[in-house]
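Many introductory courses stop at the sequence. We go one step further.
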Amino acid sequence: MICMNTLEKYLLAVRPWSFTASMMPLLLGSALAYSSVRTLSIPVLLLTCVSALCVHAAANLFNTYYDYIHGVDTPVTNDKEDKGNDVDSIDDRTLIEGLLKPNDVVRLGLILYAIGTIAFLSLSHFSPAKEPYLALIYFGALPLSFLYTGGIGFKYIALGDVLILLTFGPITIVYSFMAQAGHYSIYPVLYALPLTLNTEAILHSNNTRDMEHDRSVGILTLSILLGKQYSYYLYCILIYSPYVIICYIMINISWFCFLPLLTIIYAYRLCEEFKHDKLIKLPNRTAILNTQLGFLYILSIILTNTFQHHQKFRF
C-alpha cells in the first residue's frame, strides 16, 4: 500500500496529462516519415517515444522544482483576497502540498534523463539515421528542457514561449521524422505548424491566467508584456491559424485533411472563454483541443497514405 501510494505521488509529479504535447508531434513525424519512405519501424517508434517522453517528464519535474525554489508555486493561503495563490490555478501541487521532497523531485528528474539517454542510445542502433545528426537533436533538446526553468530560466525572462515553440515544434518532429526516415527534411517542420501553434496556445493561456501572480513574484512572461487584451488577440491567432494552414494542406495535398476542421467549434468556444475571462480551466481545455486536433491531423495523414497514392506530402 505504501509503495503504491509513493508510486502514485511520483506519477502525479511527472504530470502525464501533459505528454500529449510531445506525443502528437512524435506520432506526426512518424506518419510523415512513412509518407516519405513507405516503411515504419515499430522499435524505432517506441524508442523515439520513450526517449522524448522521459526528457519531457524530467523537464516537468525540474519545472516543478525551480518554480517552488523561486517562489512561483507557494502554499495555498486562506486569504480570499490572495487570488495569485488560488489553488484552482496551480497545475502541480507536488512540493507545495508536501507530497514529495525537493530532493526526491530532482532525483527522479535525473533518473528520467538517464533512462531517456539509454533509450536514445538504443534508438541510434535501430534507426537508419546517421548517429551524429540524431545525437545533435537529442543532446541539444535535453539541456533546453532543463533551461526552461533551471539555469538561465527562460520561463522567467519572457523567453519560455520561444523555447516551447522550438521544442514541441521543429525539434520534436524532426527528431521523430529523422529517426524513421533516416534523413532530414524541412517539410515536416512546416507540416507541424498547426500542432506547434496550438501547443503554444496551451502555454499562453496558462501564463495569461497566472499573469497577476507571476508579476507579483517577479516573473516576466509574454502575457505580462502584452497585457490581457493583446494576450487574447494572440491566443485567437494561435488557435485559429492552424485551421488556415490545414485548409491550405487540404486543398493542395489531401481532402482527408478536412478531419481536423471538425474541432473548430470547440476552438471557438475556447476563444469565447478567454474573451470572458474564464481562464481557470482554459489551459486544460486547450490541451484537450490539442489532443483532438493532433489525433485527427495524424489520422488524415494515415488515410492519405492508405487511399490516395496520387496525392502525397512533399519531402
